[in-house]
Amino acid sequence: MEIAMQAKGIERGQELLQGGQRFVPRPGWFARLISPGFSTILKRLDKGFAKGRLTGHLPDGSTRILGGRAPGFDAEVELKDWRALLRLVTGGSIGWYQAYEAGEWDSPDLVQVFAIFADNARELGALGRAKGAFRLAAKIAHAFNRNSREGSLRNISAHYDLGNDFYEHWLGDLMSYSSALFETSNKPFARAQMMDELRVGQLKKMTSIANRANPPHGGKVLEIGCGWGMQAMLMAGLQEVHVDAISLSDEQLEFARYKRDNSPQELFGEIAFRKQDYRDVRGQYDAIVSVEMVEALGREYWPTFMDALERNLKPGGRAAIQFISMADDLFDAYAKSADFIQAYIFPGGLLIRTNEFRKLAEARGLSWHDQTDFGLDYAETLRFWREQFMQAVAEQRLPEGFDARFVALWEYYLGYCEGGFRAGTIDVHQVTLVKEK
């Protein structure tokens, strides 16, 4: 659906591209001095790849197999410049992306590269993480993106206000920017099936959230982080409830209001779309839903979010939450600095540590029920988005203003996340929280 958009200027997406440059400085002579030799780096990578193998085509014309001792992902990298390894061992995932952006390495299958690194994250340890001054620079830059009220507005706008005309080319007609829930995800869908399968999977995800919330007929529901409004519309229409749906994205709210105002009321029911911070909501709701919003909070605001749930739920009320987590044994190292996603894609974001999040809920009288995990479904969702995005690029359907650097960044981002879900180091969950009566 095309709707009137605000003028974006000639360049779009530059805030994300430029924002990431603050996180890890380009490696100079000092980085070369403190880093091990390239041969040593290759040996450490070889030792760290306990599962799967990486075939490296090196700048000197030779080919080297790293790992290959146990089944796993099968990756291939063309290393065009030795400096890429330097960026990896000093700047971690941010440095590795900067090397890719600089043309220092490439791969015929980015997802396999990200998956083998994620699958061996425990064995690789600190090898692929930012170190010393580079880690400090990333940590400081990430701190400037904290999600205060002002910071949240800025961070949300940087990602979600890229334009509805951008997102609608690859998210599908439901405009749902979160994992679908498929009947099976044990094998990839064929390309011809993907549009239909994604739509069915997104509707199944929304229906699952609605059923978990289970508001009474005529009840009141709050949605925190409503996106483009389809979850709210489904619940208002099918469950015949009033929905207060809040977001900080001007673009998303414009789309959602347009969809609501140009559809029969009996189709989508009563919905109020508001630009409001979750911290400012004061009300009593039968149910609250939030789909992949909590990753944008930052760890210091997890308690604040749980306070908002407890404060706004009626006794006996239910909250249905979908969230993305980092594996518990990798979380501490992950949270000490910032990674590629936090630097370039979701400023201020942090994935959830499930056991910590659960303790915060239960400490506020919100009991934790029926957790389901479906990370491979997210891998397939991301594959669909990535292929649709690249098809839109090939057919020149993207709106004006997105240059080749941004296109490369976005393809890298979608593949990076897919690799993490395929390896299982990150996961996605639904859970139902129930407030004590």
What would you say about this model in short?
With 437 residues, the chain is an alpha/beta fold. The chain has helices at 14-20, 29-34, 38-48, 83-101, 110-119, 121-124, 132-143, 149-160, 164-167, 191-213, 230-238, 250-261, 265-268, 302-312, 328-335, 340-344, 354-362, 375-394, 404-423; strands spanning 53-57, 63-67, 74-79, 105-106, 220-224, 242-247, 270-275, 285-291, 313-326, 366-373, 426-435. It has a seven-stranded mixed beta sheet with strand order 7-6-5-8-9-11-10, sandwiched between helices. It has a four-stranded mixed beta sheet with strand order 2-1-3-4.
Task: Explain the layout of strands and helices.
Layout: H1 14-20, H2 29-34, H3 38-48, E1 53-57, E2 63-67, E3 74-79, H4 83-101, E4 105-106, H5 110-119, H6 121-124, H7 132-143, H8 149-160, H9 164-167, H10 191-213, E5 220-224, H11 230-238, E6 242-247, H12 250-261, H13 265-268, E7 270-275, E8 285-291, H14 302-312, E9 313-326, H15 328-335, H16 340-344, H17 354-362, E10 366-373, H18 375-394, H19 404-423, E11 426-435
Parallel strand pairs: 1-3, 5-6, 5-8, 6-7, 8-9
Antiparallel strand pairs: 1-2, 3-4, 9-11, 10-11
Helix pairs in contact: 5-19, 10-11, 18-19
Q: What best-fitting shape do the alpha-carbon axes yield?
A: globular
CATH architecture heading of the largest domain: 3-Layer(aba) Sandwich
Helix coverage percent: 40-55%
Kindly identify the CATH topology of the largest domain. Answer: Rossmann fold
* Number of DSSP helical runs: 19
Given helix and strand content, the structural type is alpha/beta
Distance between the termini: 44 Å
Strand content: 15-25%
Low-confidence stretches: 1-10, 29-35
Strand order of the largest sheet: 7-6-5-8-9-11-10
DSSP E strands, number: 11
Main sheet makeup: 7 strands, mixed
Radius of gyration: 22 Å
> What is the averaged pLDDT score?
89
Following the backbone from N to C, one meets helices and strands in this order, namely HHHEEEHEHHHHHHEHEHHEEHEHHHEHHE
Provide the domain count.
2
